[in-house]
């Protein structure tokens, strides 16, 4: 079974950066989307970024657009989320997930949401102090 392990979370001051990693094991399918989600206390899980293996097309939520960058090292089966200019409101548990998908995220109705993900990591906590 596919296993995902996030790392890179921690405590950081506002304005600084963190890079999260998502290592996948037992991972054999060719076409997929990697998604990053976060859940703050008392809030619903939010899909913040996705990347398609087909053409590396990406999606960002308005809350992180221009500050976060998603990428994937296919050779290492590892996904990344570079988070710059962090804000206190970015404080949350961050999860990576993988879902089967073949195609681009551009010009489609693909929804970067939990319902389209098949496997999940256990999360890593990011705390941004003001």
- Overall strand count: 11
The chain-level mean pLDDT equals: 94
**Unreliably modeled segments:** none
In this structure, how is the largest beta sheet organized? 7 strands, mixed
Secondary structure: helix percent: under 10%
Strand content: over 45%
Secondary-structure element order, N to C:
EEEEEEEEEEE
Shape: globular
Radius of gyration: 14 Å
| Total of DSSP H or I helical runs spanning 4+ residues | 0
Helix and strand composition category: mainly beta
How far from one another are the termini? 40 Å
Structure notes:
The chain is mainly β and 130 residues long. The protein has no helices and 11 strands. Strands 2, 4, 5, 6, 9, 10 and 11 form a 7-stranded mixed β-sheet that branches. It has a 4-stranded antiparallel β-sheet with strand order 1-3-8-7, with no helix packed on it. Strand 4 (32-39) and strand 5 form a beta hairpin. The termini are far apart. The model has no long low-confidence stretch (mean pLDDT 94).
């Amino acid at each position: 079974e596919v296993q995902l392990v996030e790392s890179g979370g921690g405590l950081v001051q506002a304005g600084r950066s963190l890079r999260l990693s998502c290592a996948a094991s037992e991972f054999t399918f060719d076409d997929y989307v990697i998604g990053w989600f976060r859940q703050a206390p008392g809030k619903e899980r939010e899909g913040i970024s996705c990347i398609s293996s087909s053409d590396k097309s990406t999606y960002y939520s308005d809350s992180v657009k221009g500050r976060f960058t998603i990428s994937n090292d296919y050779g290492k089966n590892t996904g990344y989320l570079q988070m710059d200019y962090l804000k206190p409101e970015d404080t949350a548990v961050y999860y990576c997930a993988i879902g089967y998908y073949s195609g681009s995220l551009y010009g489609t109705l693909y929804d970067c949401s939990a319902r389209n993900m098949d496997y999940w990591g256990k999360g890593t906590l990011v705390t941004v102090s003001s």
